[in-house]
Amino acid sequence: MQPKHISIIMDGNGRWATAKGLSRSEGHAAGAESVRACMKAAVKAGIQYLSLYTFSQENWNRPEKEVAAIMDLMSYNIRKELPEFHENEVALKVIGDMDRLTPRLRAEIEAAEAETAQYKDHTLILMFSYSGKWDIEQAAERFAKDYGTPSQKPFESYLATAGIPDPDLLIRTGGEQRISNYMLWQCAYTEFYFTDKLWPDFREDDFDAALESFKGRERRFGKVNR
Ligand code: IPE
Ligand code: IPE
Ligand code: MG
């Protein structure tokens, strides 16, 4: 079956840079090229949602200089890639705890989201300042407030990903085989694909290989397939 939503834990920027004698920040900068390649591959393959774990809540604990470089890159790349979003008719959406961002970065994100909101066939979701436990906690808080009201909606609809189907396939680059506090609720029945490729080396062919692997999986959702 064709996946609707593919997600990627983009890991390995630091190791990629270190191996080349570059700074970790240069590794993050190099990762932008892989983002563009995957966005194009996803559009070509007719994938409706591509979500990318870009910056976790735990990543706020990295050295100040690295965090600042990631914030600058977020701002720079959103601006730089806007023409690509228009050309590929991709809507941009950023999900995470926006309260931790500077008002300026928040405004830039909101402007880019508004400017691309008309595109309905493809959405690129950047999970930024995001963590799975934070998401469940913020959903629980809002759910509790509404609990007992006539319009009470299911718990899931309070998650930051409300309205977006759960990932069908989760790719993690960089060789680690763990979830690192990502979409804990949403990955209940997601297929996992791990690769040793470091994120800045990941390209369209690698994306297509993951998609091919997904197509060979038998998803049972706890049932018995006949
Ligand atoms: C992933 O690459 C990007 C972020 C977490 C922001 P890393 O920076 O974690 O790279 P490695 O895992 O140290 O190589
Ligand atoms: C996960 O990678 C977060 C992102 C890719 C944004 P990390 O490098 O932060 O994860 P751990 O520390 O190896 O689990
Ligand atoms: Mg890492």
SS-derived structural category: alpha/beta
How would you sum up the major sheet? 6 strands, parallel
By CATH reckoning, the class would read Alpha Beta
CATH topology: Undecaprenyl pyrophosphate synthetase
Bound molecules: 3-methylbut-3-enyl trihydrogen diphosphate, magnesium ion
Termini gap: 16 Å
Provide the helix percentage. 40-55%
Corresponding CATH superfamily: Decaprenyl diphosphate synthase-like
Q: What gross morphology would you assign?
A: globular
Tell me the CATH architecture: 3-Layer(aba) Sandwich
What does this structure look like?
By secondary structure, the protein is α/β, with parallel strands linked by helices. The protein has a single domain (5-131, 167-214), classed as Undecaprenyl pyrophosphate synthetase (3-Layer(aba) Sandwich). The chain has helices at residues 13-19, 24-44, 64-88, 103-116, 132-146, 204-215, and strands spanning 5-9, 49-56, 90-95, 122-130, 169-172, 191-194. The longest helix is centred in the middle third of the chain and has 25 residues, at 64-88. Bound molecules: 3-methylbut-3-enyl trihydrogen diphosphate (IPE) (2 copies) and magnesium ion (MG). Residues 10-15, 55, 59, 70, 174 line the site of one 3-methylbut-3-enyl trihydrogen diphosphate.
